[in-house]
Amino acid sequence: MPYLAKIVIYPMKSLDGVEVAQAEVLSSGALKGDREFAIFDPQGKFVNGKRHPKIHLLRADYPNPSGNQTISLKIPHQNSPLVFNLNTEREKLTATLSDFFGFSLTIAQNSLMGFPDDTDSPGPTVISTATLREVASWFPGVTVDEMRRRIRANIEIAGVPPFWEDNLFSEPDKLVAFRVGNVRFFGVNPCQRCVVPTRHPDSAAVYPNFQKIFIQKRQVTLPNSVNLSHFNHFYRLSVNTRLPTSESGKLLQIGDEIAIISDIN
Question: Is 2.40.33 the CATH number for 3-10+17-30+116-264?
């Protein structure tokens, strides 16, 4: 039986995630606290791993993961982490990060939807533990946990074979309904990956030929049942989701059973 094995939220977009035992669904379909804060450059663009590899060098921890009011930030060449309250000390955090990146930046908050990459499908991204294990095996020296940190999905499913989550999307004009515990989801499409998975999550060092290897392996391991209409290329992994507003306030919890309901138009 498929079940929910991990929940990871990323309070500050592009920084480290934190595992939680449960997560509340917002009316937008996003998980409460996920990508709630984001860093922006003077042009109003995200300061993220796609555009600024230096961000991988920062280590973030959240002493109160259920509340996420506090961030503990370890900056290279500093002896101890710096701790900031995200409600009352945001200016200090902004100044610290501006000094680290070498340009003026701002930090914004969106407690209703966060700052997802796909605003049409802001629900949690889904992958299976077996998939992460299989994909890690394509790259000698890369552990499962390192691959997990490269892919940065929110929900991890256990009790299934590799790429089981590819059953959670169908044709481009259809959604796949599934349940996690008592929370209803719609699977939308396989997530298009960016440059971030090619880099080591701590050092930003690029794994040689990562994208080429990934594409070749992904194509040959794609389950026969998968609809290929989403795959204009094979650099896709994990599933983007939407949640109906009726699920607002419900909780996802570790151990929740997962079941596919049907395709819907």
Answer: yes
